[in-house]
Amino acid sequence: MQLLRAGFLCLFLATSLPAAPKGERVLVTAHSFHIFIAPRLAPLAKAAGIEGHELVAAQMIGGSKVIQHCDLPDEKQKAKPALTEGKVDVMTMSPHVYLPDEGINHFVELGVRHNPKLRFFVQHSWMPWDGWEGTDKIAKNEDRDTRSLDIVRAANLKWRTNLEAQVKALNQKLGRDAVSITPVGGAVLKLRELIAAGKAPGLTKQTDLFTDQIGHGKEPILALATYCNFACIYGVSPVGLKVANAALDKLSPELDPLLRQIAWETVTGYPLSGVKGAK
Predict the structure, then answer these.
(1) Which pLDDT value is given to residue 13?
(2) Which of 268, 228, 259 is CA-nearest to residue 36?
């Protein structure tokens, strides 16, 4: 009888658990606030039972606008050939604060021409220099430790609002929600608020997150941004996935689970993330 009950339990679990989504062929175009996700997605996909994930290409230009990736000469171009050959299911882009960025439109138009089901994710990154261009920018990294987060929130909102306007117009033109926004900037703000409140394990000050005044991220930000991108692309929570991160464990074993939770809550709480059911 016990064996029979166990068999029914296994059958129930097998039929009630959602099936893992199919693996996607991913093209990454990026600056330094985004390029690091390219090799980090595969281990997460494997841990989630997702088969067939493939990094088609990763195209990097430091400090770039998306239009700069469009304008690369043919001998340096990785993105356009992959799109025109129909080798891509998902493309990620990472604009700078200068919006609208016509490169987003150009890549979307090229991509859907060769794959009508192609999905695009545009990363809204954390704010470089901790403020909008001009007098709001910090002069040195240490300024972050005494700077009001209200300044960062205002700049972050301005950037996100400008990006949302472009994405909404583009989706309206396409007649479907082909382009989504990966809300990394919002997730990083949540982490920074927790640090300010003394609730981020292993992190005691804002500069624990950044390497320089520009805002290049240390491992907590790199991990958080990766979790956000993974959650958007696959609609799967990174919480509980068995992927080790020794760099985070050195800070605190409790930090990595927190970053995963922040990422999932941010993505599912943002309507333009592309995740079904996002609020």
Answers:
(1) 44
(2) 228
